[in-house]
């Protein structure tokens, strides 16, 4: 039986933590190898590839590589540097994931076109490559998963409680209409004395509170970029919708 391999290049730690959890939800934890790496340095200091975390299964059917590129503008360039090597190692899909923020929504189409374009020398690799852009930040997905609010604090179960204090209602808005959802999330949590930061442990805490049944069976159909990510992972599993 062939092991199926997929590589993700993400802009930062938040995306890495979320993708790591999502692939486990979809592919299961029993038959999966996950390797999480970080790129650090570049420009003035030598670039390093650091292994952040590895988990190996005894009888793997899947191998998932998740690179934290350290910045949104590094996602595409790191893919181009690594795609030939990854294809030679049998990776069947190489996917970039980044936020749109701070680029305005009006530029999304142009940005996507530019990011999806690969120079001619990658003609052979191009069919295995894709880029997904979260509008405006991946935190829009977290905010849309409103089931997790009550796990933060029971008071956040009430849209009235949040709306009266912040002037918007996460239960009824389109989360992709919010320009800076990471800040919105922080504002919501602060209503009950908590906070949302980009620190590793804080991200892990939030990602672990999300309701993945809700994400997989409902939410994805409201958020195009999330649905595309789900389809990529399901495609590797072999049950693509």
Question: How would you explain this protein's 3D organization?
Answer:
Helices cover 40% and strands 21% of the residues. The protein is of the alpha/beta class and 241 residues long. It has a six-stranded mixed β-sheet, sandwiched between helices. A hairpin with a 2-residue loop joins strand 2 (32-42) and strand 3. The longest helix is centred in the N-terminal third of the chain and has 15 residues, at 13-27. The radius of gyration is 18 Å and the shape is globular. The protein starts with a strand and ends with a helix. The model has no long low-confidence stretch (mean pLDDT 92).
Topology record:
Layout: E1 4-10, H1 13-27, E2 32-42, E3 45-55, E4 62-68, H2 75-88, E5 91-99, H3 108-116, E6 129-134, H4 139-144, H5 149-152, H6 159-166, H7 181-190, H8 200-209, H9 212-217, H10 224-237
Parallel strand pairs: 1-4, 1-5, 2-4, 5-6
Antiparallel strand pairs: 2-3
Helix pairs in contact: 1-8, 1-10
Shape: globular
Decide which structural class fits the backbone: alpha/beta
Q: What's the overall average pLDDT, rounded?
A: 92
SS summary, helix count: 10
Low-confidence stretches: none
Would you list the SSEs in sequence order as H and E? EHEEEHEHEHHHHHHH
How much beta, percentage-wise?
Answer: 15-25%
Key descriptive features of the protein:
241 residues; alpha/beta; six-stranded mixed β-sheet; 10 helices; globular
């Amino acid at each position: 039986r062939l092991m199926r391999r997929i590589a993700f290049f993400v802009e930062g730690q938040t995306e890495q933590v979320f993708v790591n959890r999502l692939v486990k939800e979809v592919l299961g934890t029993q038959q999966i190898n996950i390797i999480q790496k970080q790129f650090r340095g570049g420009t003035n200091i030598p670039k390093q590839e650091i292994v952040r975390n590895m988990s190996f299964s005894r009888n793997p059917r899947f191998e998932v590589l998740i690179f934290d590129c350290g910045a949104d503008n590094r996602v595409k360039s790191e893919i181009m540097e690594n795609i030939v090597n990854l294809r030679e190692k049998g990776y069947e899909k190489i996917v970039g994931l980044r936020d749109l923020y701070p680029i305005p929504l009006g530029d999304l189409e142009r940005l996507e076109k530019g990011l999806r374009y690969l120079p001619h020398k990658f003609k052979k690799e191009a069919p295995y490559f894709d880029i997904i852009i979260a509008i405006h930040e991946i935190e829009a997905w977290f905010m849309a998963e409103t089931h997790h609010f009550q796990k933060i604090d029971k008071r956040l179960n009430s849209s009235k409680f949040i709306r009266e204090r912040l002037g918007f209602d996460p239960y009824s808005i389109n989360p992709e209409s919010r320009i800076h959802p990471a800040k919105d999330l922080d504002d919501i949590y602060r209503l009950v004395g908590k906070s949302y930061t980009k620190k590793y442990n804080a991200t892990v805490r939030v990602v672990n509170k999300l309701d993945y049944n809700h994400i997989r069976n409902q939410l994805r159909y409201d958020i195009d970029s999330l649905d595309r990510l789900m389809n990529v992972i399901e495609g590797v599993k072999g049950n693509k919708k």
